[in-house]
Amino acid sequence: MTIAVSAAFDSGNIVVHRVDGPQDIELSIRKDHQSDFFQWFHFRLTGAADQDVTIRIVGLDASAYPLGWPNYRACVSEDRILWTRTETSYANGTLTIRHRPHSNGVWFAYFAPYSMERHHDLIAEVAQEPGVDVEVLGQTLDGQDLDLVTLGEGERNVWLYARQHPGESMAEWWMEGALERLCDPSDPVARRLRQKARFYIVPNMNPDGSRRGHLRTNAAGVNLNREWHEPTPERSPEVLHVLEKMKATGVDFALDVHGDEAIPHNFIAGFEGIPSITDKQLGLLHRYKQVLERITPDFQTEKGYEVASAGTANLTMSTNAVAERFGCLAMTLEMPFKDEDNHPDELQGWSPERAKALGRDCLAALLEVMDELR
């Protein structure tokens, strides 16, 4: 049987240079459209059942985050349900993946993909739940719908949104876990949250980049998380639609869910450098992080991004822009593409299942600070 590599499917991304037998497969990663960003890969290998395979992905010294490759292990699946990690090494700009598939179809990815089809299944499922509304905020540049899920009857306005950077697929796995909990009528945390707040949830802010197999940008090659100062219909309609809805509802709490290529931990980035920061905002930020760290061993506060000094925040980024505009608690949650080093999992590393569990735990932490938001 002929060995072949393909990526002509939802979120697929790979360039095939050479397939000269199972031990000599050379690939590279296609850049985001109209952008120099590249890091996300997702491809299928066929015809190599029960053979030792060596795959080399070259040119990664020019990738978006070269520090993301050391100690990284590629994700692999034969049923596209269970994603595990396989032997991977990195040197001199080349990622080398070694694997022995059991069948003639095996998928490799930078992280377990979250397809647009699964997104539509998620939206369809939650739309059937009592008290849940789904609306389309508008269309993307590729003509896809930008979905908003709303639920809850309380006075506080809570915004959760994910995948501004489409290659950070763990963010929508997080969303699936959060929505499953919020829609569970037997969950006391969910019942209380829905009594206290109205939730506005955008599970995928970048459908075009997700389907195209981008790492960081939309169909125009624009990084949406640098558009929150002045989004436009031509460059960033996704941000424009969400921000206009935020202005209509107000925001008391906002969580922007992401993934980080290099740091092998879950952590929260705040808004410490915004011009109008208040002691109340800072207190809520520290309180939420402390509560989440107590709830789950998969969250920590020692490792993360450098904190911006006073007045130096980048107001084009959503967390800073939302905290500044609405005077609320706004945060960026980062999850790893690698493993969570404090509690490693040899089989799966950081995984969809753990991302979903963290989504549920983040809601439990929110309940503990909810009464302090106003």
Automatic annotation (TrEMBL):
Active site feature: 334
Cofactors (names): Zn(2+)
InterPro entries registered for this protein in UniProt: Cytosolic_carboxypeptidase (IPR050821), Pepdidase_M14_N (IPR040626), Peptidase_M14 (IPR000834)
Keyword match Hydrolase: yes
Keyword entries, A-Z: Carboxypeptidase, Hydrolase, Protease
Peptidase M14 domain residues: 112-373
PROSITE patterns on file: PEPTIDASE_M14
Protein name in the entry: M14-type cytosolic carboxypeptidase
Organism whose genome encodes this protein: Sphingoaurantiacus capsulatus
